[in-house]
């Protein structure tokens, strides 16, 4: 699904930044270049193609293109190699956080269970020199819980503020960037202010975990492994505010495909290892997910919470009804013969554009929409499950969907670790502290209405 500018070639902005990066590389001494590349010299540079991106060529500035080009395996191994040198002043604590939607990809590729694939992945990373490997599910817990609270508040205030509803999710970085850069102020007030799981994980690692380990944010190099390229864009804007300073929450993003390439080119003898937690010596014994077939399941969790809080209804099974296509689904709650909650999930930009057009005309009938830029959702992110021709590997994706569906579901409300963090890290859910750590605001630098005429 491409706009008129999309090709497999890189856009002009990225081409320019590649020239700038090459100039920097040329200036580097051959000895140093050889030392930093090491055994992984065959890895491709980190690049984002327009067909991998989710908006038109106004999306990425030249400066952002330079920073994106630095988010690749070279940057990761630069830190690994610095840690091997005698100058300890240059050493960093390496922490890698893995998104749950990446694990079915590795499980399918390794022909392992998700839990065993997670341990294999963790063992490989620690064999390279990574100190801690985390699961981002705990960050998604926070994001979902804060989204639930915000929806209930918006629903109750809707009569006073017409832009309170529909509430649109903000966990997908491709969608949020499109909303900010292209759609602008008519749409951004509808975005949920809860930070995405990646943004919250940056705060958890650099702020909470760093303070527990007596480390400043600058002493930690935090890497995210995720299913799509847009997380690289998201990392450019993730600032963590601590008591002493402001720093970047995520230093580097690697797609699942990039990490698999690293594993395939490595001759390391891998010993399985258990994923770490943010709580000292505690380990993650089993992989868990949220109640979403292809994503973190914001719709299902917010729907259940709203039904109970607003209408006293316990919803055990969320029933989806496909409308225009399988990537646009609806969920409703009826009470007394009347629909009192109407939710939807919209995946892919054809569905997103239709949703936005109806919203601008005041004809969107939903209270809440879970918005995901990738057709098929997060599991189908373009950073994984691609065939050699660049198209989706449909057989692999079907296998991944089956694997993901078998992962046990854990409601965010049931996490004792999350409740402990609300008490310890967020000072008993102190409102200013929660607002600073778990919520954000959105820019409204959108283009004129003609920006909606892009043909996806």
From TrEMBL:
Pfam families: Fe_hyd_lg_C, Fe_hyd_SSU. Gene3D superfamilies: 3.40.50.1780, Fe-only Hydrogenase (Larger Subunit), Chain L, domain 3 (3.40.950.10). It comes from the Eukaryota. Residues 13-36 are annotated as: Disordered. InterPro entries: Cytosolic_Fe-S_CAF (IPR050340), Fe_hydrogenase (IPR009016), Fe_hydrogenase_lsu_C (IPR004108), Fe_hydrogenase_ssu (IPR003149). Transmembrane segments: none annotated. Signal peptide: none annotated. Residues 390-446 form the Iron hydrogenase small subunit domain. PANTHER family: NITRATE, FORMATE, IRON DEHYDROGENASE. Belongs to the NARF family. This is Nuclear prelamin A recognition factor. It comes from Orycteropus afer afer.
